[in-house]
Amino acid sequence: MTARKIFGVLSGIAFGGLLVPQAAQALPAFAAQTGQTCTACHIGGFGPQLTPLGRAFKIGGYTQTGGDGLRAKIPLSAMALGSFTNTASAVPADQVATGYRANNNLNLDQASLFIAGNIGDHSGAMMQITGGNNFAAWKLDNSDIRPFTTAFDVGDKELRIGFTLNNNPTVQDPYNSTYAWGYPYVAPGLAPTPAGQTMLAGALSTNSIGYTGYLWWDKSLYLEAGVYQTQSPWLLKAGGNDFSIGSTAGAAPYLRAAYEWNWGDNSAHAGALFMQSNVSPVSGVRQTDPSFGHDTYTDTSLDAGYQYLGNGTHIFTVDAIYTHEQQALNGSAAAFNAANATSFGSKYSLDQFRINGSYWYNNTYGLTLNYQRVWGSANPVLYAPGEFTGSAASRPGTDAYVVEVDWVPFGKDDSWAAPLANLKLGVQYIGYVRYNGGTAAYDGVTGRSASNNNTVYAFAWLAF
């Protein structure tokens, strides 16, 4: 494998996909603890879209109670996700994942165990342990520990303060426009995924550890600040995770601000995010090589959302996020130039935009429409020509849309076995107008077109 192909593979690992599974759902353990139905906290009766009550529960550190009986005192839940995946054109034979076919695959995508509940009046947690690829590997997945939170009155207003310890930037965020819990909530792991993705959108997911503090003023103004860093090699190995884009060099600052309005049956918010990470580029499995210097990713995001809840008969939601990323790839560019006897620069940019709208009838039947776009400067360091996953233009540009229909038969007051069982059945159609910088022959090798990667993904998602 040439050095140019190696960097193409690394870029696919580092920025692997607009459409990635988020492994999020309404947890029956929380419903039992609070005595609330799943629809009280989640749009459609199944996660992760939060209602105003759901956001308050999360910001409150998962501490709210109100349920009764033994189940209310057991902070455990489980989840299973199975699927069928079809792509418009089969995956090339040499790119097929071990144990799978080139197309039309049935799969047990994930099975997870959750430790989720309050620890007294001022602490709580949500920790996920996930087995994927038919249980070939287990890992510590999205986790959010709230070691302390409390609220007190300032005049006639309430001020809540709290702290989080988590392993994925935005996993602790209460708004569904951000990345950890943003749409798509599930996505095919056996379908092609485009190369371009900002650092904030997932490069530090589950391989980092973050310490942040937040305040929530008058249930409206939300402010949060903290730092992230890569987990130690020992923690990564114990948790079944890896370095992804590399190891952070020093603390990575994280800032979040949002303002929420609630009136009548309506809720809306607008906010901003900032994060900057210095990383030593990946060089081999579980190793980093700082000899060429560091890469710096500076991400700035603007996000907003709106919900009309009504009486639960007709529900409308819209969420959107735009992220601009400045990349100073001093380490990767130096290594790339040394390996290829070239002199490419190190300054690049990447932009990402997502918007989705959903309609739910009786919190049971749902329709979601999504549009995603990634664009940026030509970047031969991260995006190289290569079979199937490469870019002939050395660009990340991708335009995709998703149409999803869902049926959630449970999650209501009169549901069978409530709140111990919940089920979501859904079908997604994922279409690509542009993929990795091109429409036809985008990879520069096989002549594969963007539309060849269009995907039908049918899934059954159970939480209990």
Beta-strand residue percentage: 35-45%
How far apart the termini lie comes to: 46 Å
Summarize the biggest pleated sheet: 16 strands, antiparallel, barrel
The 3D shape can be described as globular
The average pLDDT value, as a whole number, equals 88
Task: Examine the coordinates and then state which fold CATH places here, giving the name of the CATH topology.
Answer: Porin
CATH architecture: Beta Barrel
Question: How many domains?
Answer: 1
What is the percent of helical residues? Answer: 10-25%
According to DSSP, the number of beta strands is 17
- Our Rg estimate from Cα atoms comes to 22 Å
| Count of helix runs | 6
Question: Stretches where pLDDT falls below 50 for ≥5 residues?
Answer: 1-18, 283-288
Structural class: mainly beta
Oligomeric state of the chains present here: single chain
The H/E string reads: HHHHEEEEEEEHEEEEEHEEEEE
Strand order of the largest sheet: 1-2-3-4-5-6-7-9-10-11-12-13-14-15-16-17
CATH class bucket: Mainly Beta
